[in-house]
UniProtKB/TrEMBL annotation, chain A:
<dbReference type="InterPro" id="IPR001789">
    <property type="entry name" value="Sig_transdc_resp-reg_receiver"/>
</dbReference>
<dbReference type="InterPro" id="IPR036388">
    <property type="entry name" value="WH-like_DNA-bd_sf"/>
</dbReference>
<dbReference type="InterPro" id="IPR016032">
    <property type="entry name" value="Sig_transdc_resp-reg_C-effctor"/>
</dbReference>
<dbReference type="InterPro" id="IPR011006">
    <property type="entry name" value="CheY-like_superfamily"/>
</dbReference>
<dbReference type="InterPro" id="IPR001867">
    <property type="entry name" value="OmpR/PhoB-type_DNA-bd"/>
</dbReference>
<keyword id="KW-0238">DNA-binding</keyword>
<feature type="domain" description="Response regulatory">
    <location>
        <begin position="12"/>
        <end position="125"/>
    </location>
</feature>
<dbReference type="Pfam" id="PF00072">
    <property type="entry name" value="Response_reg"/>
</dbReference>
<protein>
    <submittedName>
        <fullName>Response regulator</fullName>
    </submittedName>
</protein>
<feature type="modified residue" description="4-aspartylphosphate">
    <location>
        <position position="61"/>
    </location>
</feature>
<dbReference type="InterPro" id="IPR039420">
    <property type="entry name" value="WalR-like"/>
</dbReference>
<dbReference type="Pfam" id="PF00486">
    <property type="entry name" value="Trans_reg_C"/>
</dbReference>
<feature type="DNA-binding region" description="OmpR/PhoB-type">
    <location>
        <begin position="138"/>
        <end position="235"/>
    </location>
</feature>
<feature type="domain" description="OmpR/PhoB-type">
    <location>
        <begin position="138"/>
        <end position="235"/>
    </location>
</feature>
<keyword id="KW-0597">Phosphoprotein</keyword>
């Protein structure tokens, strides 16, 4: 529960939710975790705060009185790459997929566990920091036991190289580049590996993920399935 | 029809003389006491008369009398000799039966034997009692008997249709027509019903049941008319109303039917109206017939036909050159009894030769009543109804020698002046005339006769039938060939014309059918129409069979359900209504349904069955079957009918499919709507449950994991938040329970006098305390004390205030008003929030309605209004919603209690 290291100023976290009760506990919880919470009860003030106060991350509720949260994401993305974690009370995977496709980084479902929300938040902030630090893709990515050497196009598990087909490599690379713990939707994966035309063939994806897991052996659990949504590599601790 | 009119007491012939007569003939008389229904007093009347005769010294014996436990009737038996009944053993039981042998041995002058339609017990000599009666009469015994009209064989069909009760015990019509006397026992239905209620007919428990079933006034009236018709052609005016009220399905099969000929001139409409009046007077259905004559100039009969349709007549158009024949054929096929035609003013020569339409009809329509209707609107000279020159058959044949004779006369006159070969031309002319006028056979006959006469009289050597010289032979050969060719051509032409006419007829019928199919109707009506039309085209009983579907399972309104091995085929429609395939035929039907091919009579499959089944093709497989019951040993359908029937079935199948698609679409729409509602409901519930749960969980988790790091005030607030949210969750849960209770109608009311100001104040204070906001109060003076359930009222107010506070937002204003409205009271809750979209105002009181998107508004607000509405209704009140209130904003909810 330590605040992110090496920051003198506590990172600002913008919470956009119309339920005052949510702010009531998230505010103290974020403050106690070393963040500076900012409160917005509708989309308009949320967007304004995001533009003027440059938060480090946005927690966004999808059900807002003035604008659908779904439509808030592209507006945010228009001017900032800030990590967006969606707080969703909605059933169904489509809402999550839509939000992720629209540019959200992650989601938690209400009622969520506070510990999980904070872990996702930390992971998102880390990814953002890594991404802002270097614009060129990292030549080497490590997630748990898995090591991806992009220069050599080799993946190793505990030092032992894996025999991957080009597709399998592409798939694993897409997951790894998204950042450890970040959800990548099926559509995003399909587009990245197979191209636009295959955006709907989730069947391919299941087969290749199956192969990958077999080849990863002891590291197979690194590829985590978000049912109906997509996959993520590794999990926020 | 009964041969004898009702025999009144005064007109009854001298019995002794009749007895003597009967004895001379060696055949006993039969007297039938005819009633319209049980309970009219037949037995009573019969026994009373028997007693009178016995007192007068006649040898009267009662063979059997059913008193049905009626005391009045039983009393009439006193003093009469009653034959003991025979006892027949049957399956371990003793059955009592009329003792025919004892009656024959006793040989009374008059034997009274009740219940003519009775079926004898097994083991009796005759299966039916009327056969006993025949034997008794053959033995010279006069028999008095009683029966109800519905037992008459020819009426059982109609009776079944009217009353829904099928009579199994029937008496052949000839028994009644052969009766020497028929006495009608007639009481009005109302009186009979009264007697039934008094328990004079049946025991009270049976009577109650009977009054609900068979003994409905309509049934009785219909039966009574049958009895009246059977005994005398009398009419009970009371009946008209009942029959008009459509309680009786279909036309009266044994009754009259009026057919009116609709011409194409201006007088046609007058004739139609006149025919309607005649049909009304006869209470008979009306058919309007228009005959289109090819080659004759004709106006448009459309207006007259439309009028006929408007007057409730069925219309039919036929194409036929021979008007009288067309009329008679149509009248016979429609079972018309009355023909109505306009009185035309034909040309003088037609009148002189007796070839007017009316004259022809009078000659040929001997089995119809013919009505010649004056032309009231005959402005100017009406076009005479056209008719074709057509001679009777014998005249046609007589014309052949006459023509030849005329040719001979001409030939004789010009003989010597022209070459003898040219005389052949004269005979050729006669032959052609005969062939064209009368047909192929006549032409052939004329040709042969002409040739013989020509040869005999004019060809050398004359006065012999021999031919000399090549010129004569050539002439004879040419003459013969030309004559034969002509005759054949004429005959072919006639046949072609006939076929074409039949085809046009079929097409017209089809067009008419498809027009009727186009009318919006439900499936049952369509199936009935198909059966009816198939009956008309095929000229036999028809039914429509469909597989059983899910909707049949409740078993309501099913005509007849039959067990089947794989497919349940059900008779959905039949024409006539009683047409029903037997078990063996149904096996053929199942085959036809499974294979999609015709089966049964006249086909390759199960040809021994009485019915033929043809499939109604559908997009997938077979939609149903049309069953046709052809008469025994009837000819297979001719090609034209076959074709017409096929076309009919195709049309029917398409119409059926259309209706099915429509039904499916309606069902799908309903399902979609239900799905959408369910989704909304689930989303609503999910949102309303999750939001407080998130707060509670988050607050508690924050306290647990980082409580030490929080200032005491924040800790206290988190505990309070968890508490409040728990309360909110509890309220939501109770709202759901209320909703369920309201939906299932389980709201118990405890009304008491409620002091409105204090009740409102309490509710407002609680709402203010919960939200920390102010609610404006504007209570009118002189509020009446209302008799309401205080708990429910409080719930209503809490819901309305909660709703208004939520919808108006944190900065909004909420006001509550109460005022007197007449004897009642109105409570108004108003806010200045965004209001309710106009299109949603109507649904705002529905369960789980939420303005705009389901999860954009504050949690828990989905149920409040509809619960308040339900509670108010439970107390006899009403809630209305208005929006916007002012400046395009605000919502006003008004609760009114009477």
């Amino acid at each position: 529960m330590t605040p992110p290291a090496s920051s003198l100023v506590p990172p600002r976290i913008l919470v956009v939710d119309d339920e005052p009760q949510i702010h009531r506990f998230l505010g103290p919880a974020l403050a106690a975790s070393g963040y500076e919470p900012m409160r917005a009860e509708d989309a308009a003030s949320g967007l304004q705060l995001a533009a003027t106060r440059s938060p480090a991350a946005v927690l966004l509720d999808l059900g807002l009185p003035d604008l659908d949260g779904q439509d808030v994401i592209p507006r945010l993305r228009a001017f900032t790459a800030v990590p967006i974690i969606v707080l969703s009370a909605r059933d169904g995977e489509t809402a999550k997929v839509d939000a992720l496709d629209a540019g959200a980084d992650d989601f938690v479902e209400k009622p969520f566990a506070l510990a999980e929300l904070l872990a996702r938040l930390r992971a998102a902030l880390r990814r953002a920091a890594a991404a802002s630090g270097q614009h060129a893709p990292a030549p080497l990515i490590r997630v748990g036991e898995l090591e991806m050497d992009f220069a050599a196009r080799v993946a190793r598990v505990a030092g032992a190289p894996l025999k991957l087909t080009p597709r399998e490599w592409d798939l694993l690379a897409a997951l790894a580049r998204a950042g450890a713990g970040r959800v990548v939707t099926q559509r995003q994966l399909l587009n990245a590996v197979w191209g636009q035309a295959h955006g709907e063939n989730s069947q391919y994806l299941r087969v290749y993920i199956g192969h990958l897991r077999q080849k990863l052996g002891s590291a197979a659990t690194l590829i985590r399935t978000e049912p109906g949504v997509g996959y993520r590599l590794g999990f926020p601790e | 029809m009964s041969a004898d009119p009702a025999t009144g007491p005064d007109t009854r012939p001298d019995p002794d003389a009749l007895l003597a007569l009967a004895a001379r003939e060696g055949h006993g008389r039969l007297k039938v006491f005819l009633g319209a229904s049980p309970g009219v007093g037949k037995t009573y009347e019969m026994l009373t008369e028997a007693r009178r005769r016995a007192l007068g010294g006649a040898d009267v014996v009662v063979g059997l009398a059913e008193t049905h436990g009626r005391a009045e009737t039983a009393a009439q038996l006193a003093g009469l000799e009653v034959l003991p009944r025979a006892r027949l053993p049957h399956r371990g039981q003793m059955l009592e039966e009329f003792d025919l042998d004892r009656a024959l041995a006793r040989h009374p002058a008059i034997l009274v034997l009740d219940e003519l339609p009775h079926s004898n017990a097994p083991g009796s000599r005759h299966p039916k009692r009327w056969q006993d009666v025949e034997e008794l009469r053959a033995a010279g015994i006069e028999v008095w008997t009683a029966m109800n009209v519905q037992h008459l064989e020819s009426l059982s069909e109609a009776v079944a249709r009217i009353t829904g009760v099928r009579v199994t015990e029937t008496v052949p019509d000839h028994v009644l027509t052969g009766a020497d006397a028929v006495e009608l026992i007639d009481i009005p239905p109302a009186e009979l019903l009264e007697r039934m209620r008094q328990g004079k007919v049946y025991r009270p428990d049976q009577a109650a049941r009977a009054l609900k079933g068979f003994f409905r006034e309509g049934n009785l009236a219909a039966l009574r008319e049958m009895a009246l018709r059977r005994t005398a052609e009398r009419v009970d005016a009371d009946l008209t109303g009942y029959m008009r009220a459509n309680a009786i399905a279909g036309p009266w099969p044994a009754g009259d039917r009026v057919m009116v000929l609709v011409g194409s001139d201006t007088t046609a409409e007058g004739v139609v109206r006149h025919a309607r009046r005649i049909a009304d007077a006869l209470r008979a259905p009306l058919v309007a017939l228009h005959v289109e004559q090819p080659g004759k100039p004709g106006g448009d009969p459309g207006a007259a036909l439309r009028l006929a349709e408007a007057l409730g007549a069925e219309t039919e158009t036929v194409v036929e050159t021979d008007l009288p024949r067309a009329i008679l054929a149509a009248a016979r096929s429609r079972n018309a009894t009355h023909l109505v035609i306009g009185r035309s003013r034909p040309r003088l020569w037609r009148r002189l030769t007796g070839r007017t339409l009316s004259a022809v009809l009078v000659r040929r329509a001997s089995d119809f009543a013919l009505h010649l209707v004056p032309n009231p609107t005959a402005a100017g000279r009406p076009r005479p109804v056209p008719e074709r020159r057509r001679l009777p058959a014998w005249m046609a044949w007589a014309s052949v020698p006459a023509l030849v004779l005329a040719a001979t006369a001409v030939g004789h006159a010009i003989d010597e002046r022209v070459a003898e070969g040219s005389l052949g031309m004269v005979y050729l002319a006669a032959t052609v005339a005969a062939a064209v006028s009368f047909g192929a056979l006549h032409g052939l006959a004329a040709a042969i006769l002409s040739f013989l006469v020509w040869n005999f009289l004019f060809i050398e050597p004359r006065y012999t039938l021999t031919i000399d010289g090549p010129q004569e032979i050539l002439g004879a050969v040419v003459f013969g060939s030309v004559a034969l060719l002509l005759a054949g051509t004429a005959g072919r032409l006639e046949r072609t014309a006939f076929t074409a006419q039949a085809r046009v007829f079929g097409l017209r019928r089809l067009v008419e059918f498809s027009r009727r199919l186009g009318a919006p109707m439900d499936r049952a009506a369509l199936l009935a129409l198909i059966a009816e039309e198939a009956q008309r085209v095929a000229g036999c009983s028809c039914c429509v069979l469909m597989p059983m579907s899910g909707e049949d399972l409740p078993g309501l309104g099913l005509p007849r359900a039959r067990r089947a091995d794989d497919t349940e085929l059900i008779i959905r429609a039949a024409a006539p209504a009683a047409a029903e395939p037997d078990e063996a035929s149904l096996a053929a039907a199942r085959w036809a349904y499974a294979k999609g091919r015709a089966s049964g009579w006249g086909t390759d499959t199960l040809p021994a069955t009485a019915w033929q089944f043809r499939p109604l093709p559908a997009a997938q497989g077979v939609a149903g079957l049309v069953g046709l019951r052809f008469a025994e040993r009837s000819e297979p359908l001719d090609t034209e009918r076959q074709r017409a029937l096929d076309a009919l079935l195709d049309q029917a199948a398409i119409a059926l499919e259309r209706i099915e698609l429509m039904e499916e679409r309606a069902l799908a729409a309903a399902r979609t709507e239900a799905d959408a509602l369910r989704t909304t409901l689930l989303t609503s519930l999910g949102h309303d449950l999750r939001t407080p749960l998130t707060s509670i969980r988050g607050s508690l988790e924050t306290l647990r994991t980082m409580g030490e790091a929080l200032p005491p005030a924040a800790r206290a607030d988190l505990i309070l938040a968890a508490e409040e949210e728990t309360a909110r969750l509890a309220r939501f849960a109770s709202n759901i329970l209320d909703m369920v209770r309201l939906e299932s109608g389980q709201v118990a009311l405890r009304r008491e006098e409620v002091d409105l100001p204090s009740a409102l104040e309490a509710a407002v204070e609680r709402a203010e305390h919960a939200t920390g906001r102010q609610v404006q109060r504007r209570l009118g003076p002189h509020l009446p004390a209302a008799s309401l359930d205080p708990v429910l009222l409080d719930q209503i107010l809490a819901n309305l205030l909660d709703n208004a506070l939520k919808f108006s937002g944190a900065a909004g204003h909420v006001a509550i008003l109460a005022r007197r409205e007449g004897a009642g009271v109105a409570i108004v809750v108003e806010d200045d929030g965004p209001g309710i979209p106009r299109e949603d105002l109507g649904r705002v009181l529905d369960p789980f309605y939420r303005a705009s998107r389901t999860d954009r508004v504050a949690a828990g607000s989905g149920l409040g209004l509809s619960i308040a509405n339900g509670l108010a209704r439970a107390m006899g009140g009403q809630i209305t919603a208005e929006s916007p209130v002012r400046d395009e904003r605000g919502t006003r909810i008004t609760v009114r209690f009477p």
